[in-house]
Amino acid sequence: TKEIETSQSTTANQSDVDDFNTLYDAFYTNSNKTALKNSQFDKLSQLKTLLDKLEGSREHTLAKSKYDSLATQIKAIQDVNAQFEKPAIVDGVLDTNAKAKSDAKFTDIKTGNTELDKVLDKAISLGKSQQTSTSSSSSSQASSNTTSEPKPSSSNETRSSRSEVNMGLSSAGVAVQRSASRVAYNQSAIDDSNNSAWDFADGVLEQILATSRSRGYITGDQYILERVNIVNGNGYYNLYKP
To answer: Are 201 and 107 found together in one domain?
Structure first.
């Protein structure tokens, strides 16, 4: 980014130009101006005041361009961060532990800052993946919970054996969003693999997978099914798209 240059023919006060450049530079974490400091966002109005002081001078055109670009970048970060329970982008770095809000809406955003746009894309992808995971997990958990209720003795419905449960792909090396799970993971329950609470009634898992495929959550057998917890005798699973 070019610094504002002055000459003897300009009408701007040199100190006003310096003040603008100094505050403008303070918004960025580095001299390459690829990442913004979140703590500076509320000072944008101060920068606008300094910009207005340059009105009518040769420096104003370049300063206005820099201000407009900065304002666009700040708004983009704020819009994306507002979709998470806590800021996902802080000082140009994506917090992969940030959780998307239940009513979050993600749309692609471009600012013209290539490096920032990459981080924005990653944040949006993170949020969308959590929404997919949460929706799939909700479907799986609700169905598993329902079918795990004790059945009347007169019912001829039987549970499938554990050997018939297709757990899908291995989660090894896959960054699944376990932090987004609506039911807390319980390793001791997961290790109790022979517990009948993990059994699905006939056809239930197939129905869950079919519904998830129809909604676009998973494709074919490209899914990861993980045991999560046993609560009140009911087995809970999470279904993830790898």
So the answer is: no
Q: How many CB atoms lie within 10 A of CB 218?
A: 22
CA 110 remoteness from chain centre: 17
Same domain membership, residue 185 and residue 126: no
Query: Closest by alpha carbon to 107, among 83, 71, 72, 90?
Result: 83
pLDDT range class, residue 40, cuts 50, 70, 90: very high
Q: Are residues 68 and 123 in the same domain?
A: yes
- Domain residues for 37? 14-134
- For 10-29, the DSSP string reads --S-HHHHHHHHHHHHHTBS
Whether 39 has a pLDDT exceeding 90, the answer reads: yes
Burial of residue 73, with CB atoms counted within 10 A of its CB: 0-12 exposed, 13-18 middle, 19 or more buried: buried
Beta strand residue intervals within the chain, DSSP E? 89-90, 93-94, 224-231, 234-240
- The tokens for 4 are 């504002």
- The pTM of the full predicted model, rounded to 2 decimals, is 0.54
